[in-house]
């Protein structure tokens, strides 16, 4: 594994804490996505912290599936997921302009379709090799994972459907 390889999130745990180097890059990602200078589909998610009340921002990719955008929590039960739940889904997305949204958690039984869309979108955005690497690092599956394989990992990756306010 080289220095530029992404952190592996494929462990079957409920939360995968980001590495220190990744946390340091978050500020750069937030700036780029907020200005609209990041890759297609990248946005800044802003949600109030559940205990501090402070606005928390992080860069994240949107995934189009079934006619709606979705957010996939690749780190599992991460801080942003907990904050979104505490805020009853109220958040904003920014890519150039601010977009107030409500995030609705997708039931586990319906997540595999969004995970498939995530992998297909990764293939479109970055090509076969990059998408295969993401499938392994983030989900611990092959790029062409079967629906049953995606169903098996779905409980570890919260997914939210984006609805404009």
- Portion of residues in helices? 25-40%
CATH architecture: Roll
CATH homologous superfamily caption: Electron Transport, Fmn-binding Protein, Chain A
How many β-strands, per DSSP? 6
- Domain count, please report it: 1
CATH topology: Pnp Oxidase, Chain A
Order of helices and strands: HEEEHEEHHE
Strand content: 25-35%
CATH class descriptor: Mainly Beta
Rg estimate, integer Å: 15 Å
**Largest sheet geometry:** 6 strands, antiparallel, barrel
- The unreliable regions are none
Structural class: alpha+beta
Mean pLDDT: 87
Spatial ordering of strands, largest sheet = 1-2-3-6-5-4
Total helices: the number is 4
| N-to-C CA distance | 42 Å
Cα shape: globular
What does this structure look like?
It is a single chain. The chain has a single domain, classed as Electron Transport, Fmn-binding Protein, Chain A (Pnp Oxidase, Chain A, Roll). Helix content is 38%, strand content 27%. The protein has a six-stranded antiparallel beta barrel. The mean pLDDT is 87. It has 165 residues and is α+β, with helices and mostly antiparallel strands.
């Amino acid at each position: 594994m080289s220095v530029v390889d992404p952190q592996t999130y494929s462990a079957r745990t409920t939360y995968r804490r980001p590495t220190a180097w990744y946390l340091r890059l978050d500020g750069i990602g937030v700036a780029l996505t907020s200005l609209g200078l990041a890759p297609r589909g990248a946005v800044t998610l802003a949600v109030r912290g559940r205990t501090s009340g402070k606005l928390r921002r992080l860069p994240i990719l949107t995934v189009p599936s079934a006619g709606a955008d979705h957010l996939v929590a690749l780190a599992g039960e991460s801080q942003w997921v907990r904050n979104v739940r505490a805020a009853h889904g109220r958040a904003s997305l920014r890519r150039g302009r601010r977009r107030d949204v409500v995030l609705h958690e997708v039931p586990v039984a319906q997540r595999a379709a969004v995970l498939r869309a995530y992998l297909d979108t990764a293939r479109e955005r970055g090509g076969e090799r990059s998408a295969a690497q993401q499938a392994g690092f983030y989900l611990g599956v092959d790029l062409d994972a079967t629906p049953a394989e995606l169903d098996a990992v779905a409980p570890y990756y919260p997914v939210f459907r984006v609805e404009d306010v």
